[in-house]
């Protein structure tokens, strides 16, 4: 019933009628192709056919002359299968570790910060195969790690490496606990290192983590009450240390204070600096900001332009997901139908999980593009919002087929190949979510759906259901959810949380009541251009 890959309809429309010029789309495409993203894409495309042919030749030649025993070939297949599982493309597991396999091994070594030489040592092989076995075992702890970490399946590989390299000073964590910023997560590890409870046990204890907007900037701030750790290292006979983290443009600033039974009312914070509310003496001020004593704290204006007149006081999606993920971790896992949870909460959890996977997908592409960083991609992708303003605006006013007509016109107007558009959209989707620029994220998600990735329609359903970056339109959200769910039920490879068992069924249950009783979708505004025949459902 829902959308087939839209490009078939786009091609038919292109043959039937001329395409009106899309304002700014060619300039945007030229900027991408000529810049860091498009240039890397073109180079990759030019080299890919020769690399594939040469790799195939080497693999066949090596296979025919290698004299590899059947036992060694079986072991090599295990390595190739595990590399593919963790997203390091080793090609078809044929038991011959050729050039493609060595490149995959190098990728794994770089990911784990190991010496990169393309050859597995016995220790590295044990890490790889051990992590693969744990990931396939269905161990609840491992599955929770994989399903909630922005690293996805690679989180199991990272955990296996950490476990097998223990004994010295633990490496500082590079990713936060679900729902917690990295700075707060590192403090949790610090408290756990001098306490009997583990970090995971501390996070389960009521009152250990408190959320509040302490400095009035519209983002979550965090209070860690060390008294629940039972550690004399953090507590004296009368007082315990409270660690207060307040958001700043550069991350979270830490303030260490002595407080008994701390709550949000215990502190007064401005910018990065906090003090105890009862005596007014600053205890610690990280990167204090100059301000008059009687200055009032106002919600900061967003650094990025907002296309859609979103209220300035609206909480960011990143902040929202931080709270959602923390509640999920505190509960011990995702809500499901069998547990009798709330469908809206389940959709919020899956929205934030999908957002994490979208960011990770873009970051993985960036690792193979020398000199490209998330910041440089964000700068390139900033044009996505204004360039696709018409399509993004139609999302909250028009039915899904009409929106896809708009996006189809944009696709044809760029002059870019499907592969360039797909990779660019993947990068800009990650950049948009990482920067909390929802216009960029929405534009990229629309482009992915138009290029045939129906599972990405889930993101658009979430935005319309929750009202982040769009008007809150559950009546329109239902069709986008339906597009993604029908594709997944039809066997389309999942894009988000592919290792989360029963996720399609969970989405089906949670989205089943979306849009029921809501107002009917508004007609397409007459000012929007019509590009050929709409794709049939």
Automatic annotation (TrEMBL):
Source organism superkingdom: Bacteria
Region described as Disordered: spans on this chain: 44-75
Biased composition (Low complexity): 44-73
UniProt xrefs under InterPro entries: Peptidoglycan-bd-like, PGBD-like_sf, PGBDSf
Keywords of the record: Signal
Domain Peptidoglycan binding-like: 77-120
UniProt xrefs under SUPFAM superfamilies: PGBD-like
Protein name: Peptidoglycan-binding domain-containing protein
Signal peptide range: 1-23
Keyword rRNA-binding recorded: no
């Amino acid at each position: 019933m829902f959308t087939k890959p839209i490009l078939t309809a786009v091609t038919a429309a292109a043959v039937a009628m001329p395409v009106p010029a899309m304002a700014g789309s060619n300039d945007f495409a030229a900027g991408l192709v000529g810049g860091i993203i498009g240039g890397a894409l073109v180079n990759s495309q030019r080299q890919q056919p020769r690399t594939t042919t040469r790799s195939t030749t080497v693999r066949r030649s090596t296979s025919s002359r290698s004299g590899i025993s059947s036992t060694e070939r079986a072991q090599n297949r295990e390595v190739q299968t595990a590399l593919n599982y963790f997203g390091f493309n080793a090609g078809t597991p044929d038991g011959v570790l050729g050039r493609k396999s060595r490149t995959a091994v190098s990728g794994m070594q770089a990911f784990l910060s190991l010496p990169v030489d393309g050859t597995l040592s016995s220790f590295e092989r044990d890490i790889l195969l051990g992590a693969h076995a744990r990931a396939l075992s269905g161990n609840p702890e491992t599955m929770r790690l994989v399903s909630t970490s922005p690293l996805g399946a690679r989180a199991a590989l990272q955990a296996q490496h950490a476990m097998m390299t223990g004994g010295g000073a633990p490496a500082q964590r590079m990713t936060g606990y679900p729902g917690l910023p990295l700075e707060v997560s590192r403090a949790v590890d610090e408290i756990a290192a001098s306490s009997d409870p583990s970090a995971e046990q501390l996070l389960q204890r009521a009152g250990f983590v408190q959320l509040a907007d302490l400095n009035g900037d519209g983002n979550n701030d965090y209070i860690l009450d060390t008294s629940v750790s039972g550690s004399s290292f953090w507590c004296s006979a009368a007082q315990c240390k409270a660690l207060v983290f307040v958001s700043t443009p550069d991350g979270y600033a830490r303030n260490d204070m002595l407080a008994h039974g701390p709550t949000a009312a215990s502190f007064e914070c401005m910018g990065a600096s906090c003090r105890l509310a009862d005596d007014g003496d600053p205890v610690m001020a990280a990167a204090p900001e100059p301000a008059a004593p009687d200055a009032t704290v106002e919600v900061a204006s967003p650094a990025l332009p907002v296309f859609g007149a979103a209220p300035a006081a609206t909480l960011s999606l990143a902040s929202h997901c931080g709270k959602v993920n923390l509640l999920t971790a505190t509960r011990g896992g995702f809500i499901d139908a069998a547990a009798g949870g709330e469908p809206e909460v389940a959709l919020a959890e899956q929205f934030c999980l999908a957002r994490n996977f979208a960011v990770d997908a873009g970051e993985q592409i960036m690792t193979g593009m020398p000199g490209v960083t998330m910041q440089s991609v964000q700068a390139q992708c900033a044009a996505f919002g204004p360039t696709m303003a018409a399509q993004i605006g139609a999302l909250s006013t028009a039915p899904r087929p009409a929106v896809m007509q708009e996006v189809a016109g944009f696709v044809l107007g760029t002059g870019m190949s499907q592969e360039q558009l797909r990779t660019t959209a993947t990068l800009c989707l990650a950049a948009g979510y990482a920067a909390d620029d929802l216009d960029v994220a929405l534009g990229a998600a629309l482009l992915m759906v138009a290029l045939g990735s129906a599972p990405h329609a889930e993101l658009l359903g979430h935005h319309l259901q929750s009202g982040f970056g769009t008007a809150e339109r559950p009546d329109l959200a239902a069709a986008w959810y339906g597009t993604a769910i029908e594709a997944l039920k039809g066997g389309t490879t999942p894009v988000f949380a592919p290792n989360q068992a029963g996720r399609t069924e969970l989405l089906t249950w949670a989205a089943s009541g979306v849009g029921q009783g809501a107002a009917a979708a508004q007609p397409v505004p007459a000012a929007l251009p019509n590009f050929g025949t709409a794709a049939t459902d």
